[in-house]
Design brief:
Blueprint (H helix, E strand, L loop, with lengths): L1 H11 L1 E2 L10 E3 L8 H4 L11 E2 L6 E19 L8 E6 L16 E4 L2 H4 L4 E2 L8 E8 L10 E2 L1 E8 L2 H14 L1
Antiparallel strand pairs: 1-10, 2-4, 3-9, 4-7, 4-8, 4-10, 5-6, 5-8
Length: 178
């Protein structure tokens, strides 16, 4: 019974890849030969041989703005058993965070990734915190084994768009009110 209702919830959610504003995506501390595109872009993220890899140490800071306001439901972060991410903090609508100030803000949600998560099981987020998201910052704090380098094979964001038609409807009502 419960498995069935979970899939029903999942079915309403869409892969938000089409709503990523690629021109403004940022990633800090990545190895230039293994960039974020490998984990996030269609076609690349499906290729097991391509991954995002951290550079100077194990931490990664990823900023993903959207072309429209979205509701974020869950996130998939795939990686290896050893070098896959472990502690992940998610921030909604926080612009231009850096490693120096990422700990100054309380995250919208945190996740400790399990081996199942690293194999593709979605992390269900505190939905109420991600109701009108214009951008998402993902702070990968460390990895499973305490290795120097973190590798992320795939990132998928699931949710829904906040319909623009609602806004038009609201405007109409306001105009009639005056």
């Amino acid at each position: 019974m419960s498995a069935e209702s979970t899939t029903a919830v999942q079915r309403a959610q869409v892969d938000l890849l089409d709503f990523v504003d690629w021109s403004s995506v940022e990633c800090l501390n990545y190895n230039s030969s293994h960039s974020l595109v490998n984990a996030l872009k269609q076609g690349y993220r499906e290729d097991e041989g391509l991954y995002l890899e951290s550079d100077a140490d194990e931490q990664l800071l990823i900023y993903i703005p959207f072309t429209q306001v979205i509701k974020l439901h869950s996130i998939v972060v795939k990686g290896s058993e050893e070098e896959g991410p472990k502690n992940v903090k998610l921030f909604a609508n926080k612009e231009h965070m850096g490693f120096s100030n990422v700990s100054d803000f309380p995250p919208s949600d945190t996740a400790v990734l399990t081996p199942e998560n690293l194999e593709g099981k979605p992390v269900i987020l505190k939905y109420v915190k991600f109701q009108s998201v214009r951008s998402l910052t993902i702070f990968i704090e460390d990895n499973q084994s305490g290795a120097d380098i973190t590798k992320v094979q795939k990132i998928v964001l699931y949710g829904t768009t906040v319909e623009t038609t609602d806004m038009k409807g609201l405007k109409k009502i306001e105009e009639h009110g005056h």
